[in-house]
Amino acid sequence: MRGRPPAPVDLARERRLRALDAEARKLLRDPALRERTNAWLADLEREEHESMARRETQTVTIRIETEILDRVDAYGERLERVSGLRVSRNGAIRALLLRGLNAEADGGARPARP
């Protein structure tokens, strides 16, 4: 086995997350609840955009292989299916970047495959 051994799995945490996921999926089947949830999430998104406008940010231009962008787009589409909200490519890239940085900070990130 090369590299770092896999991190131990916290089964209790995984069970809680799966239970929460199942509950969220059940709740989002209710059209009225879905509409209220989407309105609430839209408010949160608007607040996040307003907050970001007050934070110092930079526009960054990078060159990314088409295969990686395809994976980013697929991730964004999965988020859209689960949440019912529109996810931009920018939002998907930002979410994936933050997930990777958080995993790295936790010591669990594996090196990217070329």
Q: Got a strand count?
A: 0
Strand content: under 5%
As residue ranges, the low-confidence spans are none
What distance separates the N and C termini? 19 Å
Number of domains: 2
Tally of helical segments = 4
Helix content: 55-70%
CA radius of gyration: 17 Å
Task: Find the structural class using helix and strand composition.
Answer: mainly alpha
Task: Draw up the topology in text.
Layout: H1 11-27, H2 31-54, H3 66-83, H4 89-105
Helix pairs in contact: 3-4
Explain this structure to me?
The structure is a single chain. The chain has 114 residues and is mostly helical. The protein has two domains: 10-57; 59-107. The longest helix is centred in the middle third of the chain and has 24 residues, at 31-54. It contains four helices and no strands.
Entry summary:
The chain is an all-alpha fold. The chain has four helices and no strands.
Features:
114 residues, mainly alpha, 2 domains, 4 helices, 67% helix
